[in-house]
Amino acid sequence: MQTLRLGNVEIEFPIVQAALSGYSDWPMRMIARRLGAPYTLCEVMLDRFVVEVSKGSKAHRYLRVDNEEHPVGAQLMGANPADFEPATARLVEAGFDVIDINFGCPVKKVLGRCRGGFHLSQPQVALEIVARVRQAAPDHVPVTVKMRRGMDDDNQSRDNFFQILDGAFDRGVSGITVHGRTVSQRYQGPSCWKFLREVKEHAKDRVILGSGDLFSAEACVEMIHQTGVDGVSVARGAIGNPWIFAQAAALLRGEPVPEPPTLHAQREVIRTHYQLAEQLYGPQRCCQLMRKFGIKYARMHPDSTRIRDAFVRVRTSEDWQHVLDTYYAEDLPGRYPPAEALDSETPGSQSHGPKASCSRT
């Protein structure tokens, strides 16, 4: 099982947790690391926010890095290239090991503010951002980029993609994660794994990670084998299923995929996740913020619909504990979350784009 290298940062195996807006906070990252994720990314942060939030609860929430987490990356998003430099310095000061630049977010309000995936339409601005982040980060801190395969499927989008890809490597980035959907697709239709294979063949020995449609350990390993990418970045498939990393690692070692965690194993992880969230957010905010995770965890329960509805109804920590005591009391076998249900969701997206014009293979 090969390691993954981003500059001088060595990652134990090449299946990592992506930055997930609204999800990959400190509690989620800690749970993922404890259950086998070799590297995680903080949820995306706006450059100006990072500079302005110097202390208090928001700084504690977004900029918290524990010794147990390393290596851990921070993802930046913004519109003005000049704002990325002080934000990069602040994230390095906070203790993040890698700085990742978001050129992939497809959410409508993000695009309207010239952030995220919008930069795929303006290569010169995108590459200025890369240069400024690389200049602001110390030499020992790798800089990486997350991008989609283009704004859409026209020839200009394709040309822009490869201009940014090659230019980013020329400016010193250590790796690029490519999501196989276009910005206009958002989260709809299949991820184009064939394009990922083309990108890796183009990049040669430069580090490329793939992303898109990774809802099982088998899919993670299959993407590496089909496309030749150096690693994969698991996004929605890791929400409520932090066991996916250990399962994928077993497959990479040539072992059978482990059985899904039993209900008691799930219960202990869910309880710990809640405790970490309560530690970070306090008892008042914690329960509301954790409901979205409970809904995701419910997919691994054999009675998933009932458990999902139970988590939707929780309002207090006592309600949360009642769900665990009632529905996770008997140590029944768990199940793998159904990929079809996960793939139909569009977290963070306010509207849907056209179906993909590219199949997986």
CATH superfamily of the largest domain: Aldolase class I
Poorly predicted sequence stretches spanning 5 or more consecutive residues? 341-357
Order of helices and strands: EEEHEEHHEHEHHEHEHEHEHHHHHH
- Give the helix proportion (percent range): 40-55%
Number of separate domains: 2
The tally of beta strands, per DSSP, is: 11
Distinct helical segment count: 15
β content, as a range? Answer: 5-15%
Q: Give the CATH class of the largest domain.
A: Alpha Beta
Arithmetic mean of pLDDT: 91
Using the 3D structure, state the CATH architecture of the largest domain: Alpha-Beta Barrel
Briefly note the structural class of the backbone.
Answer: alpha/beta
Supply Rg: 20 Å
For the termini, the CA-CA separation is 24 Å
Main sheet, how many strands, which sense, barrel? 9 strands, parallel
* Morphology call: globular
CATH topology of the largest domain: TIM Barrel
